[in-house]
Amino acid sequence: MRRITTVGYPVLVLDDGSTDATASEAAAAGATVVTMPVNLGVGGAMRAGFRYAVDHGYARVVQVDADLQHPPEDIPKLIGAADDGADLVVGSRFAEGYRAEGYRRVAMRGVAAIVSRMVGMKLDDVTSGFRVVSEPLLSRFADQYPAEYLGDTVESLLQAHASGATIAQVSVSMDPRASGEPTSRIAASGHLARLAVAVVAGKPQRMGR
């Protein structure tokens, strides 16, 4: 987190019901901390973060995972695409050498192909959590944002497209995981497979303007 503040950005940490020292350590490092009263899951926590940003007058947010795999030095790449007019900018890990393995790789490619067809543009990394969201999409996400696992990445892309938002993708690097535990490959592959079926079976509802 200090790497983010070092490059000049204020940081909001969403403490989603943790039982460790997340909140106190984040605050000590200079972050604003919002602690959820109960564990809401990633989608619920992200919506709370978007709501905080809107309520405090921010017109743009950068979404960064807490496992330190997203290099803050790449944030200007995403912001540059947002400055060029994109409402939602996705950082793609694959162009910089990231490789998923086994069934997870197959599932990720399959979901990316489906989503690319649905939004009318090629997207390589639809599950990336490294993003920039700008107004007016930011306010829409503050009111309506998918709560299900992976809905915060894939379904949010489809919701953004359905609402007429402009989407862009830029290449980013990916650092080795410095903290936290990844989802198991079997579980991740299962989630992706179920998500692919759900995406094919039904389109997301259009968010209100």
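[next item in queue]
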Amino acid sequence: MSDLFLKDFYTKTVVPELTKSQGYQNVHQVPKITKITLNSGFDSSTDKTTIQNILQDIERIAGQKPVITKARTSISNFKLREGMPLGVKVTLRGQIMWEFLYKLIAVVLPNIRDFRGIGKRFDGNGNYTLGVKDHSIFPEINIENNKQTVGLDLTIVTTATTDEEGLALLTSVGLPFRKSTGDADETQDAEN
């Protein structure tokens, strides 16, 4: 099984299943995963070597070179000047997106200690966001060489119009959501 399997699984199994269960008239009405974005922010006082380490870590995780996000305006209370680096972001589409999603479902999430599923954090339009408190859960990160904990936000953008459609799509693809809807620890999505 590989990322090609996941894409084939979507086209051959998930699309007919959702067409039947959701009552779509056409296979083109079935929601699709369009992109996955990874975002990681850091303090404005972070030194350049730490920023480069974070950039390299996110590049290893995503399999694609990220870009550095910079401040648009100066805010004196936060000691922030226009153009200072504030974070790192990368957008995955196509084959790289399917590879990352497969790695997330098959490798990363099952290896989290005491993992009971991920929370259902949708934005109202069928897009899902997962907060990761420590990026060392990804197998590309060497824990011995890791000097700091970096958190990141992972957003799966879909063409679904409602959260129910998005949940049905991502559940059918294989994301392991929690069974109960009222878990108190829903803020602890993915941590070591």
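[queue empty]
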